Amino acid sequence: MKAKLLLIVLDGVPWRNWDLFGNLEGWVDAGAAHKWRMRSVLPSTSASCYASIHTGVTPAVHGVTGNDNVFRVGLPDIFSQVRLAGGVTGAVTHSYWSEFFNRAPFDPVRDIEYDEPESTSINHGRFHTMTGYNMRNQMTPSDADLFATLTMLGERFGIDYGILHTCTLDSMGHRFQHDCYEMDNAIFHLDEKLAQYVRRWRDSGYEVIVTADHGQNARGHHGGRGADQQDFALYYFGAAEGPDSDTLLDQRQLAPTILTRLGAEIPDTMQHAPFLNA
User: Fold this and answer.
1) Edge-to-edge, what's the strand order for the sheet holding 34-39?
2) How many Å from the N-terminal Cα to the C-terminal Cα in the chain?
3) Out of 35, 71, 131, 185, which residue is the most buried by the measure of CB atoms under 10 Å away?
4) Cα dihedral value 108, 110, 114, 115, nearest 10
5) Which residues neighbour 51 within 8 Å (Cβ) at sequence distance 6 or greater?
6) In this predicted model, what pLDDT tens digit does every residue of 67-80 receive, in sequence order?
7) Among residues 189, 276, 278, 187, which one has the least CA distance to residue 237?
8) CA 18 distance to own-chain centroid
9) What three-state secondary structure class fits 201?
């Protein structure tokens, strides 16, 4: 493949909160990263956005209308296109990603961890389900453990494209909302843990994108229209050139952009233009 890339999705972080990521912002100031604002599809619901991130189409097209409507998506996606190009894929994510892009329903015994070199989608998967999640019981894995797991997949299996997805901040927003010490502190600690791995990934030759799937409003809600529910930041570490920093990006641009950077073919179903050059 032309390049290697890791996509880091921090679930449910609205645009207003990204200034709290001191390390990410510091890299932008130093010229080591570029930052844009991106807008999610509608509905701005987690599962719907996950499917759109990887297929480059809206929920009205791929059919994932919400978190209670999870199935194997029958469209080309980043994993399948990377595999067609001969690349190796990995995922450290919520189990929905395995269901959307590998097989459904999710069987925790069979699917929580797998290494399938011949797969036409995800070769190396490590998943979590958050079973038992509610407002008093977040059931989110440690972000540091997830970052380490993705790093292990890259170093052990030589993955060309990998995705990591963590729900910690989305869960914190639903529980505590946003104007509070709990959220400030959670972001502070996640930023510190992430920063240690961004350096390691870059030293290993990976381009890195750090972004979210959607935002949240002041009450910790998302799903509908509005900049607070839909907008979030995207940081890019790599050599490609992109648009002016004040350009508003569309979430449907993310899949074709990643394929462009990797040198994989963009399928006809992905109609939005990449925002990074080849």
Assistant:
1) 113-115, 124-128, 89-94, 161-166, 4-10, 206-211, 231-237, 34-39, 248-250
2) 12
3) 35
4) -170
5) 59, 62, 64, 73, 100
6) 999 999 999 999 99
7) 276
8) 15
9) helix
How far is CA 120 from each of CA 76, 87, 148, 150, 232, rounded to the nearest angstrom?
11, 10, 25, 20, 31
Type of residue at 42 = L
User: What is the rounded CA–CA span in Å between residue 37 and residue 19?
Assistant: 12
Give the span between the Cα atoms of 261 and 264, in whole angstroms: 8
Distance separating alpha carbons of residues 97 and 73, to the nearest angstrom? 10
- Pairing relation of β-strands 161-166 and 4-10? parallel
Q: What is the DSSP string of 36-48?
A: EEEE--SS--HHH
Q: pLDDT band at 136, cuts 50/70/90?
A: confident
pLDDT tens-place string over residues 78-122: 999 999 999 999 999 999 999 999 999 999 999 999 999 999 999
Task: Quickly list H helices, the chain.
Answer: 22-29, 46-55, 59-62, 78-84, 95-101, 108-111, 143-157, 168-176, 181-203, 227-230, 254-262
